[in-house]
Amino acid sequence: MTKAMEGKVVLVTGAGRGVGRGIALDMARAGAAVVVNDLGVALSGATETGLSPAQEVVAEIEAMGGRAVADGHSVADWDAAQAMVQAALDSFGRIDAVVNNAGNLRDVLFHRMTEEEFDSVIAVHLKGSFNVSRAAAPHFKEQGSGAYVHMTSTSGLIGNLGQANYTAAKLGIVGLSKAIAIDMQRFGVRSNAVAPFAWTRMVSSIPDDTPEQKKRVEGLKKLVAEKIAPFVVALTSDAGKDVTGQIFGVRNNEIYLFSQPRPIRTAHTSDGWTPETVAERVFPMFRNDFYPLHKSGDVFTWDPV
After folding, report:
1. pLDDT, tens only, 230-243
2. Which of 67, 162, 166, 241 has the fewest Cβ atoms nearer than 10 Å?
3. pLDDT of the residue at 49
4. Contact at 8 Å (CB) between 173 and 126?
């Protein structure tokens, strides 16, 4: 691997396992110093014992001759996010990229979802991405450069069953990424969203009770978490300096550029609309272009390559 990130400092959240771990390791291989953030808890939020996942990844990076520090703060807390960025400054003197990868799941059908199940997912994914991004923003602005990568999901871009909280958070992250790209373009700062397809500890909590669910899970198991990292490294390197405000996907050896919402049909009347004329004219006119209630698996039907 070339040293595409030589001299740069990267903060990767949720980097103790899965996709985040792969990104942290590849960032180090590319020459970056890495702040490896991971709360070190079970998917349920319960505290785990032993050497923290973040410390384990730091040890791996140091063993390959790289530089890294572990951070155990929660992205859901504003002050903790500030501390993460400060750890980069204290340890390595600067910060050049933020990868918002930390996540959790509380899958449940919408009509059974509790307020806590909704709030906890929004707090980690959406609010957490805001907290960490906002903490780095003044430093990016001052140095006139910086890169954000925010992890979205096809659950947000397309939809999935039993994930109203996760879907809302992940589509919200797309909006957040675009807003950051617009607001900080003048300072040479870029922001992009990536939907990773990967079999990870978080994804392994998906139910497999029915034949359809089992088939889906078996397909997901073919998705290698480490395959996401090369694209993220390229995106945050100087080679990606002109890429901003986009939505990408990485699925094993496939890379996608996703569309973004734009009008696809219009209806106009010089007389103004009434409920009756809308029902009579607009709905029939638009019907052929309505999107069906697809779930992610309905769109990505081919085996990963």
Report:
1. 999 999 999 999 99
2. 241
3. 53
4. yes
Chain centroid, CA 7 distance in Å: 24
> Could you tell me if 276 and 282 are in contact, meaning their C-beta atoms sit under 8 angstroms apart?
no
* 3-state SS, residue 56: helix
With a pLDDT cut of 70, the percent of the chain lying above it is: 89
Residues 6+ apart with CB under 8 A from 84: 11, 13, 35, 37, 71, 73, 75, 132, 135
Please name the residues in contact with 8: beta carbons below 8 A apart, sequence gap of 6 or more: 31, 32, 33, 96, 97, 236, 237
Kindly list the structural domains of the chain, giving each domain's residue range(s) and its CATH number in brackets, ordered by start.
9-260 (3.40.50.720)
148, 166, 256, 291: the active-site residue: 166
Give the span between the Cα atoms of 258 and 300, in whole angstroms: 13
Kindly report the pTM of this predicted structure.
0.92
Neighbours of 191 (CB within 10 A): 27
Cα four-point dihedral sign 76, 81, 82, 87: positive
Percent helix, strand and coil across the chain, each rounded to 5? 50, 15, 40
Measured CA to CA, the distance from residue 150 to residue 186 in angstroms comes to 20
| Distances from the Cα of 243 to the Cα of 61, 64, 193, 227, 236, angstroms | 28, 30, 11, 20, 9
Task: Enumerate the H helices of the chain as residue ranges.
Answer: 18-29, 53-63, 78-92, 115-122, 128-143, 154-157, 164-184, 211-220, 229-236, 275-277, 283-286, 296-299
- Which one-letter amino acid corresponds to residue 7? G
Q: Is 166 a catalytic residue?
A: yes
